[in-house]
Amino acid sequence: MSQARPADVHPAEITPLTEAQVRTAVTIPLRFSDGYTAPARVLTFTGLVDGAEHLLLAFGDAVNDDGEVTPGADVLIRMHSECLTGDVFGSERCDCGPQLREAAERLNDAGGLLLYLRQEGRGIGLYAKLDAYALQDAGLDTYDANTALGHGEDERDYTAAAQMLRAVGVDGIRLLTNNPDKAAQLSALGIDVVDVVRTGVHVTASNARYLQAKRDRTGHLLELPAA
């Protein structure tokens, strides 16, 4: 299922991208907890604006026989923000782990790129995210918990992601996401988002309120079951 490109919700002026370069490329055979396996060509970078250790994982036909990352036109892209609790420990308070697993298979089938971005807790960090969980347990939603701690609702900036895409020769993409802000930021940074492809909805009893807040507060493209 896909959605037309959303309107730009980041009117702030964006400075031109500085150039980043690939520093290392290595193949890692991935195996997920359900047994799904896929090889990924994993790239690291120099020159990223935030200095963080973000990764690009290339799957399927996006890697040629010589191990070079060769994304085609309008390549399928997933930007996934790191979530230790969901990605590693399988927490059901969010949908991050299932989204990562889904993305790996869809990208492997289509020949696409996963940008694994070190933006824990929508950019506020792991400890602050856990502090926000405590506030959510007291009744706040995921966004109000962040602001109660003195943070923004969502502090993620995708400038480094756009640099990573440019470093491997990508201009036009199909973006695998339910979050319109990701498409809006990349478009403002000069990446042509030709389509937004929705991810699945991974709802559990523990994350239903969280997903509802994402839909109602920040316009995530989520079709949730009636309460």
From TrEMBL:
CDD domains named in the record: GTP_cyclohydro2
Cofactor(s) this protein cannot do without: Zn(2+)
UniProt remark on cofactor binding: Binds 1 zinc ion per subunit.
Catalytic site positions: 154 (proton acceptor), 156 (nucleophile)
Pathway, per record: Cofactor biosynthesis; riboflavin biosynthesis; 5-amino-6-(D-ribitylamino)uracil from GTP: step 1/4
Record domain GTP cyclohydrolase II: where: 39-197
Keyword flag Nucleotide-binding: yes
UniProtKB keywords: GTP-binding, Hydrolase, Metal-binding, Nucleotide-binding, Riboflavin biosynthesis, Zinc
Protein family: Belongs to the GTP cyclohydrolase II family.
Function summary: Catalyzes the conversion of GTP to 2,5-diamino-6-ribosylamino-4(3H)-pyrimidinone 5'-phosphate (DARP), formate and pyrophosphate.
Protein name: GTP cyclohydrolase-2
